[in-house]
Amino acid sequence: MLADSEFAFELSVCQWAERAWSPASDTAVLVARQFGTKHRRWDTIVLECDPSGLRERAKFGAEVFDSDILHVLQNAPADWTYYRDALPDPGYPWRYVRESIHEAADRQAIETRKQGNRIEIRRIRPYPDWLRRIVAIENKPDLTASAARNLVPQLQRDIALSLADEVWVATAATEERVEPILLADLPAAAGVLTVDPETGTAEAVWQPRSLSVDEPGTRILDRPDDDTSAARFEYADTDWKRERRLAIAERAYARGWRAYADTMRPDCRHFQLNADETGVYPHCVAKDCLPTAAECRGQCPSYEPEPPAWRSKAWPLDGGPGKAIQRVLDRRRRRQRPGLAE
Fold this sequence. Notes:
Region (Disordered): 309-342
InterPro entries: DUF5787 (IPR043901)
Helix content: 25-40%
Strand order of the largest sheet: 1-2-6-7-8-9
Pfam families: DUF5787 (PF19100)
Structural class: alpha+beta
Number of strands: 13
Number of domains: 3
Protein name: DUF5787 family protein
Largest sheet: 6 strands, mixed
Organism: Haloarcula terrestris
Radius of gyration: 23 Å
Strand content: 15-25%
Distance between the termini: 29 Å
């Protein structure tokens, strides 16, 4: 697969990571894309998970739990208990906790009952400790000098906050004796991957430093370019980091990296999935390219809806080719989350 756009390169990195990332024999790997916090978004995230914990997580279903529901799940008692006695003070009004309790109960993640005017809760099963490590990858296929300069402040913020266990930069491999990215002035704590999208392989040419995720981090708010102005920063405590890491992992678990069809038009007669030795990718027959979400939309001049006959006559699956493509991608996504029912 030739990465002719940053999106195409991003997909090739996700394919490679899902196939080849192997930190340990007893570790399961989940890959997601375009995730982070409101202050920072990473291109690719690799979750290193406990295999048995991952299967226990599947018993709660495929949908994401936000941080408020996680607060309830992680503290729900084994026996019936008044919710205010069971849960630590959340630091915000209890009425929001009650909303999270009802939502968790609606999703059959906990049980509730009324004793007089008091809501009691009981867990159905313990919420597992399934996440081990988070690896963040920034994708820059064409790392020009200006792109490298713009990337440095982002990496510095990632390393200072240490929300991820490792931070990497992935760039397209060249045929030069010394990869240009190694000559860029990147932080030494960030690892470097050179990726060959045509062969679906990657090489770690610089190993990252493991970051201190269990210690307080530093959130850099402003770092002036000159040497005379003071930087602004604030500390991020370990509890906040722990909550944010799990919230990120939950979102990654629910969505994965194959959700690109949700923002494209697989119902277009020109939309296909192409497979080669490196993986499966979207393909536009009309333009003969791997389209981006900005290109593959209803306003595209080449957009043509599927003929109704494709959905009502010869097509063997309900909904036509577009719906079938989405089901294929969803099955592949679920395959990476062991324990989920098909």
